TrEMBL record:
Residues 143-314 form the Glycosyl transferase family domain. This is Penicillin-binding protein 1B. The active site is at residues 167, 442. It comes from Pseudidiomarina andamanensis. It comes from the Bacteria.
């Protein structure tokens, strides 16, 4: 009687517990199965006819993406060199614009440009082809789990069949637990004299991974079985299988746990899950039993033995042909160049992405679906920046405390493509590219000139400016006597020459005419959000800004006065490909008129052609670049900014303790800029003259308009102005003789 009562009580307790599990598990499994991180990607290399990409650049990109060189291209992820270019099989990828299937193409080159793109094998001409973007890393809300969520429809049927063969043959027939599977696994293991199959169902394994600890006890095992029964009752087999495929653990990468077949495929094979072949599938399924024990990176022989055993099972169960089996067992356990999702960490760029991601209006529960963040990051410019700062700093100075930062942006897109915040590009910590606030020196002068062109209609590149000493009296302040860098004065000179030669005194005089408050306002309109002291010394750059802020200002100048904030993030989607955020590139704010923007760009091109940046013209040719140097008091900061028709490259050198480094902008930072530009394809600067600007002649001593055909004329762009018919080359009105008036 007592036993009956205890049995009834036990049944009641069990039913109650099952009801509790049903309520809690259903809620958790429906809405919070796992956390998925934000996966960060760089830019997609886009190839189209006449694109400035050469053969070696394409091959390097393919190698970065773990494409394999072969003699005959048959599968995705392969490439080969041909007589006129490169043939490759682009992998399938879910781009920000939507999924694209694998595609085999031939890209031909003419010099350093793409000549033509053909689809193979049909030979159809293509207008463009995108390579999948490089994976940069992950950002998450605190856990150390990495996964790329994939739908069941994307998983190869051979992977599903092999997984069920090894782990749970009765998956579609049991109710969460299977006594048959336990018995079959025991027999298989005895027959092979080793463990080749497990007794737990996939549902039990999923419950253990999601909700239970690794404790070995009868209670945990019983709890696992009950929870598996509840899940199997409440959810479809396909839902459970898809969740398992996204949750199963596959090992570690740089301290992060790799979960799910989506990211494991990328980690071990450099492939999308759709691309996995039989050998890949066998290895992945084999790893599930013991990700540490069968880690193919640490124990390749052990992992290969496990893989080959599973290949035997696949062959024995007619999941593959004999030819496929022979081919599969002969493959290396891992392709060369794989085994890491991220080969190099990018702490300074990733810090920028994390900051921007935190400012976006993202769904509060984004970790349930995960994010894919597509950035402007360009590995070519990043590698160039890193190499430049590592090699050039010891060359320009033997000061061990010398530090540096580099920011590179695509000013056409308003996107940050590379960031280096330390002389050691891998150093985690203080990111000088965004956090080092240093006086900018002469880098501020283009803003002064641009505003003068805009607000003073009579001021032109050919106008005279005064390079004569003067004193500035300030209330409750000592008298300020601005000096030029060389402590000399040139007297009256053309504005173009004063800007190209970076003369201080003319810039101060012009800045005082523009107005200190207006100059402060211009900095704020150009993206500066840090405090600015509105003092006369601001005309010589006595305002601390970061290299990122300077890059944003010069991006505006490169766009001829049109401002768009710099960003690292272009598009954000969830793991299913649905767009969560997309940048609106059409939104821009005009700071200067097109005419003023054009004139200051022409002057900054002169800085490179014949001014303080002429070493870059010597290296790369005239009219290809514009830029500006910057040096602060006592040689504490060395700046240089250069830009072509696509890139803005900003370099700062200095010491964290603000001690002098004895470098000017031209003797220090310029050399780092030059090293960067030697490694990236320069897109020659194209200055688009507005309709109200024309080529004009200026008297070199008087700074007034004269006819353009005068031998003494300095030819410079200027706003269209009708000149008197009898204006002479002297700059004066010349009366015509009766003979000239007659004819």
């Amino acid at each position: 009687m007592l036993g009956l009562k205890l049995s009834i009580v036990g049944i009641v307790v069990l039913v109650g517990y099952l009801i509790y599990l049903d309520a809690t598990l259903t809620e958790r499994f429906s809405s919070n199965r796992y956390q998925a991180p934000a996966l960060i990607y760089g830019r997609s290399l886009t190839l189209e006819p006449q694109a400035a990409v050469d053969k070696s650049a394409l091959v390097n990109e393919l190698k970065r993406l773990n494409y394999r060189a072969v003699n005959a291209v048959k599968d995705s992820g392969q490439y080969r060199l041909t007589e006129y270019g490169v043939e490759f099989y682009r992998r399938p990828f879910d781009f920000a614009t939507g999924p694209q299937m694998a595609k085999r193409v031939q890209v031909n080159f003419a010099g350093n440009r793409v000549q033509a793109i053909m689809s193979l094998p049909d030979g159809r001409t293509l207008n463009r082809i995108q390579l999948e973007p490089p994976y940069l890393g992950r950002l998450s809300g605190g856990n150390n789990e990495d996964r790329l969520l994939v739908g069941l429809e994307r998983v190869p049927s051979l992977l599903i069949e092999t997984l069920l063969l090894v782990e749970d043959r009765d998956f579609y027939h049991h109710s969460g637990i299977s006594l048959t599977s336990i018995g079959r696994a025991a027999l298989a293991n005895l027959s092979a004299m080793r463990t080749v199959q497990g007794g737990s169902t996939l549902t039990q394994q999923l419950v253990k991974n999601l909700y239970l600890t690794r404790e070995r006890s009868l209670w945990r095992k019983a709890n696992e079985a009950l929870m598996a029964i509840v899940l199997d009752y409440r959810f479809s087999k396909n839902e459970i299988l898809e969740t398992y495929l996204n949750e199963v653990y596959f090992g570690q990468d740089r301290g992060s746990a790799i979960h799910g077949v989506g990211l494991a495929s990328r980690l071990y094979f450099g492939k999308q899950v759709e691309e996995l072949d039989a050998a890949d599938i066998a290895l992945l399924v084999g790893i599930i039993k013991g990700p540490s024990y069968y880690d193919p990176r640490r124990y390749p022989e052990r992992a290969q033995e496990r893989r080959d055993l599973i290949l035997q099972l696949m062959f024995a169960q007619n999941l593959m042909s004999k030819a496929q089996y022979v081919t599969s067992v002969s493959q290396p356990v891992l392709p060369a160049g794989t085994g890491q999702l991220v080969t190099e960490n990018l702490p300074h760029y990733m810090e920028l992405v994390k900051f921007e991601l935190g400012r976006l209006n993202l769904p509060a529960n984004w970790q349930q679906e995960g994010l894919r963040v597509f950035t402007y990051f360009d590995p070519v410019t990043q590698n160039a920046a890193e190499a430049a700062i590592v090699t050039e700093l010891p060359r320009v100075s033997d000061d061990d405390a010398l530090q540096g930062a580099i920011v590179i942006a695509n000013h056409q897109q308003g996107g940050v493509t590379a960031v280096v915040g330390d002389k050691n590009p891998r150093q985690v910590g203080f990111n000088r590219a965004v956090a080092a606030m240093r006086p900018v020196g002469s880098l501020i002068k283009p803003l002064i000139y641009a505003e003068a062109f805009q607000s003073q209609p009579e001021f032109e590149l050919g106008s005279l400016v005064s390079d004569e000493p003067f004193q500035l009296q300030q209330p409750s302040q000592p008298t300020w006597i601005p000096q030029n860098f060389d402590k000399k004065f040139e007297g009256e000179m053309l504005a173009y020459d004063a800007l190209a030669q970076s003369r201080n005194v003319p810039a101060v005089r012009l800045g005082m005419n523009v107005g200190i408050d207006r100059l402060t306002e211009l900095l704020q309109l150009s993206g500066v959000d840090s405090p600015i002291s509105s003092v006369p010394a601001i005309t010589l750059g006595a305002v601390p800004l970061s290299p990122m802020a300077i890059t944003e200002i010069y991006t505006m100048l490169a766009q001829q006065g049109s401002y768009r904030p710099l960003q690292s993030i272009r598009v954000v989607t969830n793991h299913e490909g649905l767009t969560v955020y997309e940048r609106n590139l059409s939104q821009a704010r005009r700071i200067f008129s097109e005419a003023a923007g054009f004139l200051v760009n022409f002057g900054l091109r002169g800085v490179i052609n014949e001014g303080t940046g002429s070493k870059l013209a010597d290296a790369f040719g005239v009219n290809k670049l514009a830029g500006k140097s910057g040096t602060t008091n006592d040689y504490r900061d060395s700046w240089f900014v250069a830009y072509d028709n696509q890139h803005v490259v900003t370099v700062w050198l200095g010491r964290d303790d603000n001690q002098p480094v004895q470098l000017t902008g031209s003797s220090g930072a310029l050399k780092v800029v030059q090293q960067v530009l030697e490694q990236i394809p320069i897109v020659p600067l194209q200055l688009n003259s507005p309709i109200d600007v024309e080529a004009a002649g200026f008297h070199p001593q008087l700074g007034v308009r004269i006819p353009v055909d005068c031998n003494n004329a300095r030819l410079l762009p200027a706003r269209i102005k009708k000149l008197p018919e009898n204006l002479g080359c002297s700059g004066n009105i010349e009366e015509k003789s009766w003979w000239q008036r007659l004819f």
